Amino acid sequence: MPPDRWFLLAAVAVFLAAVRPALRSLKSGNWTVQRQWPLMLLGLALQSTALWLRGRELGQCPMKSLSDVLVFVAWSVVLLYALVGSGFRLSLLGIFTAPLVVLMLLLALLLPGAFPDYPPRGPINGWVELHAALALVAYAAFALACITGCMYLLQERLLKRHRIGSLFYQLPPIQGLARAIARQVFLGLGLLTLSLLISLLKLNTPISNPKLLFSWGVWALYLLIALTIWRHSLSPRQTALAAALGFVIPFISLWIVTSHG
Amino acid sequence: MAEQASPQPQLVCLGLNYRTTPVEVRERVAFAQTKLAEASQQVGGLQGFAEGLVLSTCNRVEIYATHHLPGAEAQQQLIDHLCDHFDLQSEQREALVTYPLHGSEAARHLFRVVSGLDSMVLGETEIFGQVKDAYQAALQGGSTGRTLNKLFQQAFSVGKKVRNETQIQRGSTSVGSVAVDLAEKVHDLSRCRIMLVGAGDMSRTCAQSLLSRGAHSIIVSNRSHERAVEMATEMGGRALRFEEWESVLHEVDVIISSTSAPHFVIKADLMQEVMRRRRWQPMLVIDIAVPRDVEPAVNAIEGVYLYDIDALQQIADEGRRQREQQLRLCEAIIEQQLQKFGFVA
């Protein structure tokens, strides 16, 4: 097995290790972010090493096959968590982030024909690399919005049903979660817009390109969510639901986009 | 055989608290916070005593000291000092019920006090700071020495351990604190605007709890406008005539209702309209009134979280029950630490 795969397996083990004690201490009501933070950072370091090794092996950014894309998005999710989690006082996000990352990495590792060799490529086009990287980081922001949406729905349910237990005390206030969803959606939308503009203006890819069509579809969906947030057309709960369920579309689109080469 | 004076300094604690002594006597023997250093010095300066520290809160007065006297004599000296210091008359002296604790018992008691296990509200955290202040005052006054310094440092470490390793402070134990916890999980309290509909004592308690935790502002509306003005002035808010409260409902984030109306005052239709006007931003509605002021269907409205007095009481009861369950765990930690520090074998 190539070394990058070992690093990915190690990252999966570390993220799993981050979830288990966190869930146990969360249940007992004794959870503190300090217990999970070092493991999340170690996982990020292992992911980064795996990405670097894979990139070196291919001689380009590993973002063409579905396995590589999943690894890149999972890496971006943890990176954004590290940046956003503390900024929004959403330390608990880690408990919800780690399982999603484990799922993505396992999927990447277990896919049939995972991590194929890419055909040799010509000179590196910086705009192509930037376009792909921005799109994937945007997807990571949508993934975080999805996780935050789930946290909102959970806390909202606990409040409505008067279930005031240890989880209730650990979860952030719903208004803070609503603000975090909005920021993550706006961030993701901004990055995806930039990525698509690069493809349109610098790479001269027509909108009708089937690969891009799905990305435009995802962009339209999140533009709609962003507009409802901005205009308060939906209630915060409905927005959280849209952010949580909306991520299914970019997640599926990754399959479609990567299958088009 | 009579007790012999001890060559090694012996630890003693003489105290009275809300369990042993009624408030009328406690307030008579309470030391002013500004005089704690001086009071501690006086204890340390008693004949046969080496160190002294006075802790005085609304729920307890305790003297910690080291001495070279027989235990009973040291205890009597402290009682006499307390009576003389506050100039207690003979009937007041008789009403003064104190608990004398020696050696490891005194250390165990201090560890329990610092951990909030001896407090009226089990697990409360304020006492930790109060003991720390009393220690600082005694330290600055020069009335503590090797034994008390070591004991209090150990007590602070035990208090932190108990809080970090158990859930003794988790959960709310009173209606007021439940209201604060709920509001904190819906809103950022610093931006939270509160409205009191009806000016009852319990709603005042809830509102004061919210304000003390940093709530942004308060509006009071009551059938008797004078009463509303009085309460608003007291809490630094503004009063609103009772006919007008509905018109500003959409601007507030927490409603605390406690009118004496025999019918629902806040109905689902009204709240539906209010929520539409505030674009479904979440709102916490606390109904303390009996009979209830808020129509139960209000809880089904998107973004509204309704808690009546039974729901609040149930949460507070559960919080108390959970804390009591943690008590055994806390006591075990304290015993373990007493062993570690050599107070018990």
Description of the molecule:
The complex is a heterodimer of chains A (261) and B (345). Chain A contains ten helices and no strands. With 261 residues, chain A is mostly helical. Chain A has two domains: 1-112; 125-261. In chain A, helix 3 crosses helix 5 (126-160), helix 4 (93-110) crosses helix 5 and helix 5 (126-160) packs antiparallel against helix 7. The longest helix of chain A has 35 residues, at 126-160. The model of chain A has no long low-confidence stretch (mean pLDDT 83). Chain B has 345 residues and is of the alpha/beta class. Chain B folds into two domains: 10-165, Beta Polymerase, domain 2 (2-Layer Sandwich), CATH 3.30.460.30; 175-315, NAD(P)-binding Rossmann-like Domain (Rossmann fold), CATH 3.40.50.720. Chain B has helices spanning 23-26, 36-44, 71-85, 90-95, 104-114, 126-141, 146-165, 175-186, 201-212, 225-235, 268-277, 309-340; strands at 10-17, 49-56, 60-67, 99-102, 193-197, 217-222, 238-241, 254-257, 283-287, 304-308. In chain B, the strands form two sheets. Chain B has a six-stranded parallel beta sheet. A four-stranded antiparallel beta sheet of chain B has the order 2-3-1-4, with helices on both faces. In chain B, strand 2 (49-56) and strand 3 (60-67) form a beta hairpin. In chain B, helix 5 (104-114) crosses helix 7 and helix 5 runs antiparallel to helix 12. The longest helix of chain B has 32 residues, at 309-340. The two termini of chain B are 26 Å apart. At the A-B interface, helix 5, helix 6, helix 7 and helix 9 of A face helix 8 and helix 12 of B.
Please describe the structure with a list of short key phrases separated by commas or semicolons.
heterodimer; A: 261 residues; mainly alpha; B: alpha/beta; Beta Polymerase, domain 2; Rossmann fold; 2 domains; six-stranded parallel β-sheet; four-stranded antiparallel β-sheet
